[in-house]
Design a protein that fits this description.
Length: 149
Amino acid sequence: MIKGWKVDVNTKDYDVKIVILRKATERFVPEALPEIAEYIAARIRIIIPVKTGRLRASVTVIVHAMEAIIMTTAGYGLYVDLPTRPHIIQARTRKYLRWFGADGRPRFAKQVRHPGTRGAYFRRRALDASRGGIVNILQRTYNSLVGNG
């Protein structure tokens, strides 16, 4: 502490204020959360890269009282969202890997060297793009709960 300075913290009524805040949050958050989660999911569906549409269609929202989970049910969503390092892909269930080249002809190999991916960062980008809309949803929900909307 700096010499000659005194810090006095008045904790009077803090416990009452915390209880009031908790009760307001318990009423407010469950009211706004489903709409906020769907809003963010809609932004993800707009931003997400599309080849077949399977990843976009797999964006799912699950809301429980004070928690929302926005996820993709396609097993490769994380690999599209985040960068991957170069790696080797080996045939496991068959003797050869098979894919179609740019010319449309099939290609075969026992293993390939995948160069890795950059990552689309669709979760972060969608959340950044949603900030203004989230604030609007929170304001509208608050106003409707206190009778100003």
